[in-house]
Design a protein that fits this description.
This protein is an alpha+beta fold and about 800 residues long. The protein has 17 helices and 52 strands. The strands form 12 sheets. The protein has an 8-stranded parallel β-sheet. Strands 17, 22, 23, 47, 48, 49, 50 and 52 form an 8-stranded antiparallel β-sheet that branches.
């Protein structure tokens, strides 16, 4: 288990005191007078969550939990005096920069009233929690509280009336037989098919509204929180709380490690969702967090980034960069963390003691240009996560790009971003946002010198006049009307495949034979640069124990992980089995598939396939392995299975009897981008020819190759960035607003597609035919010039089984 899971016992103790609807052992329900709910006019935002327009940007503030863990005495740390001190420190140091939430985590209440609603701890708040709330509001700030799903056994047994609904009793609320409701097993599941269940949640939300609560962190939400098999399912709780909080405009934040497969549900009912485990290292008095707990967020965000946007945000947990003595991070790592939170448009809430921020921490937390990146609400996406030197970017409303160059490796490095990789065709000016410095104009890209270990450069890239910008289908500036999905096997990824030619020099003539197009296997060694290792991994070579290529990668830290993205239909995780090793969680495309054992009681097993999957749809996938137990976790190699596009994929050429070599390709011939050897392109028409689906490698070219094995790389293009959005219902539409002088729509064609209407600024300008006998990629379907200004392109499905949207390209006027 990861360190955070082992130490969530602290959370369990605090939750036992903090959950609305729980009666701690030894306490009895008290009937106390409470104020009536205040009337509000807030409504549910069109984006889903209950906070309405308050959630159009990520929130900024502070959360108590990191300091509760760090202090080692979680509940006592959130006393009235400390909360007031944090509020005053925020008011003085951070509030002028947009920080406004004071969120109190688990442990704030100690009892319930005669209606089963929480009563704040009288020990922590001898003058009442209301006095603390009033102090926070008096500083112009907002107050947040904490809860989890379910209802306690004590409250079920007490059978109390529900406030405002005397016909309802708490004893009638749970599912029967009693069913666990949360990760820790503290409460029992509420039966939301009963109208009284919603009335009970409403009564608590109304109480919070009467107190002036602005925010609720709802923890242990499933699917997620370490459990995604639906044995625990808190979606009904989330919906009920969302509806109850909406009339008070209270922000609903879900926690922790929410299951991405239910992202649309979280977006419908919440304003934010934690995408991973606790950021805290659970090392009281030593540190708040570790680099490993920050670094593991990168592969998570590579999947989650597109789900954040106005109304609901990807939550990365507390930003613990404010005091170097307690953060647990180097100065470069602190800046990297602050940058990741900013470019991901994640809620920026501090976990430090705000009365004790150092000068560098204040510099990180109060850089207005960096805060502006966060508040623009444009989550960044990675160009690739295949190496530890990663470029993340987002396209802003003003046509500029935000670009972060993250060095996650173990050495300083020069890092380059090419404008074409961002989707920018043209020159651009560059500004360093951390340094507040303009760096000049660059024609095709920019290289940052000596980016430090675990360091970052944060840039604003502004295209110059007449540059063209390519916009992917999943950019947040592209909006969809109707029922649209992303990919789901409607995409075609770019792929390459080698034709291996055995060049001989003998008098015996040998020709290529034809075989059925099938599956080929690629072996990826553990030292492959495109495998991303998160945590403290090392490489061991020359072991002489039967390892593939005589080396392995290994780690001793629970929670460390590897991930690898590939194009194919299957993958094997190959490792060693030994009594020093334990369990490994295997994720495919972000979904936990299996926990496998690499333990072997006797002896040592080399090159063992401990996990295999072969039925994936042909496309882009990611395998991720996470160490759960044992002294060591190893990776030896990955076997990748791909659908063969060459028939045959091997051939023989005899120099003594030279003859052309022909192969059939399994894609439309126009999808073949080129053929190369060792990075050098062959010349079409001279070195090879294409006739329909038959590609012929000329004997004259093969005769120049050295005797032995020659690998010719056939490169096939795919959809832009290997993905598309698609809709099946006529009338479904895609819309994009741009500032410029011209626009193109570039998308896929296929036998399952029909016609679409193209509108410009509300006027129908063309009906386009997207039908083609073969599925092909990146074809221009529409182009036009327009007068300089703001314009809106809208595309509406007219006919066919499906409409795909891939890329929009427009010319800027900057």
């Amino acid at each position: 288990m990861t360190r955070s899971v082992r130490n969530r016992g602290l959370r369990r103790v605090l939750v036992g005191l903090a959950v609305a609807g729980l009666i701690p052992a030894g306490l009895t329900a008290t009937s106390s007078a409470v104020p009536l709910p205040r009337e509000t006019t807030a409504t549910v935002s069109a984006t889903g969550g209950p906070a309405g327009d308050k959630a159009l940007k990520p929130y900024m503030g502070w959360s108590s939990y990191s300091m509760q863990v760090y202090s080692g005495n979680g509940q006592s740390w959130i006393s009235a005096d400390r909360l007031k001190a944090q509020s005053d420190a925020m008011h003085e140091k951070l509030q002028p920069y947009g920080y406004e939430y004071i969120n109190v985590d688990a442990g704030w209440n100690g009892d319930v009233d005669g209606y089963g609603r929480p009563v704040p701890s009288t020990t922590l708040y001898p003058d009442g929690l209301q006095a603390v709330i009033d102090h926070i509001h008096g500083n112009g700030q907002k107050i947040g509280l904490y809860g989890i799903p379910g209802i306690s056994k004590s409250l079920i047994d007490a059978n109390l009336p529900v406030y405002g609904a005397p016909e309802c009793r708490t004893g009638d609320l749970p599912v029967q037989p009693l069913t666990k409701a949360d990760y820790w097993g503290i409460g029992f599941k509420i039966d939301f098919s009963k109208p009284c269940a919603q009335k009970y949640i409403d009564s608590i939300a109304d109480l919070y509204g009467a107190w002036g609560v602005d925010f609720l962190k709802f923890d242990s939400v499933t699917p997620g929180s370490g459990i995604s098999d639906l044995s625990l399912d808190a979606r009904d709780d989330v919906k009920a709380w969302s509806q109850a909080l909406a009339k008070h405009g209270i922000w609903l934040e879900l926690s922790w490690a929410l299951d991405i497969n239910y992202a649309d549900y979280w977006k419908q009912y919440a304003n934010g969702w934690r995408i991973d485990w606790d950021v805290e290292c659970y090392c009281p008095g030593q540190a708040l967090t570790t680099w490993q707990n920050v670094a593991r967020l990168f592969p998570k965000l590579a999947d989650w980034w597109r789900h954040g946007g106005p109304g609901g945000w990807n939550d990365l947990d507390s930003l613990n960069v404010g005091n170097g003595q307690m953060d647990g991070l180097t100065r470069d790592e602190r800046r990297t963390a602050a940058t990741l939170w900013a470019v991901s448009a994640a809620p920026m809430f501090v976990g430090n003691d705000m009365t004790n921020l150092d000068s560098y921490g204040l510099e990180l937390l109060t850089n207005r240009e960096v805060i502006a990146v966060n508040q623009a609400g444009r989550p960044a996406q990675p160009l690739s996560t295949k190496t530890n030197r990663q470029v993340w970017f987002s396209l802003n409303e003003d046509n500029s790009y935000t670009v972060a160059l993250f060095n996650l490796g173990q050495t300083d490095a020069d890092m380059t971003v090419n404008w074409a990789d961002l989707g920018l065709d043209g020159a651009a000016k560059v500004r360093d946002l951390w340094a507040h410095k303009d760096l000049g104009q660059f024609e095709s890209g920019f290289t940052a010198q000596d980016v430090p270990i675990h360091g970052v450069r944060l840039l604003k890239v502004t295209p110059q006049k007449d540059s063209a910008i390519r916009v992917n289908d999943d950019d947040l500036r592209v909006t969809y009307d109707g029922a649209w999905q992303r990919n789901a096997n409607h995409e075609v990824p770019a792929v390459s495949e080698p034709l291996t030619v055995a060049v001989t020099d003998s008098s015996a003539k040998s020709s290529a034979t034809t075989s059925d197009i099938g599956t080929r296997t690629i072996e990826v060694n553990n030292d492959n640069s495109q495998i991303v290792y998160t945590g403290s991994w090392s490489r061991s070579t020359g072991r002489g124990l039967g390892d593939y290529q005589d080396d392995v990668q290994y780690t001793e830290t629970n929670g460390d992980a590897f991930s690898y993205s590939f194009v194919g239909t299957g993958v094997d995780y190959v490792t060693e089995k030994h009594n020093s090793q334990g369990d490994v969680e295997i994720y495919i495309d972000g979904q936990l598939k299996e926990t496998v054992s690499t333990y072997q009681a006797d002896g040592r097993g080399a090159q063992q396939v401990v996990y295999s999957i072969s039925d994936l749809p042909n496309g882009t996938h990611t395998i991720r392995g996470v160490k759960k137990s044992g002294q060591f976790m190893l990776l030896d190699k990955l076997n990748i299975r791909q659908q063969s596009l060459l028939n045959p994929d091997t051939a023989t050429f005899d120099k003594n009897a030279p003859a052309d070599v022909s192969v059939q390709i399994g894609r439309d011939p126009d999808e073949l981008v080129g053929i190369s050897k060792a990075g050098q392109d062959l010349v079409k028409g001279t070195d090879y020819t294409v006739d329909g689906n038959v590609v012929t490698i000329k004997a004259a070219y093969l005769a120049t190759q050295a005797t032995g094995s020659t690998a010719l790389d056939f490169r096939f293009r795919g959809d832009y960035r290997d993905d598309v959005h698609f809709a099946t219902a006529n009338g479904a539409a895609v819309e994009f607003t741009f500032q410029g002088t011209g626009v193109e729509w570039i998308t896929a064609l296929g036998p399952d597609q029909g016609e679409a209407d193209v509108y410009l600024d509300g006027k129908l300008v063309r009906r386009v035919n997207l039908h083609n006998d073969a599925r092909v990629t990146v074809r221009q379907a529409f182009t036009t010039s327009v007068k300089n200004g703001s314009h809106t392109l809208r595309i509406v499905k007219v006919s066919g089984d499906v409409l795909r949207n891939d890329k929009i390209r427009y010319t800027t006027t900057n």
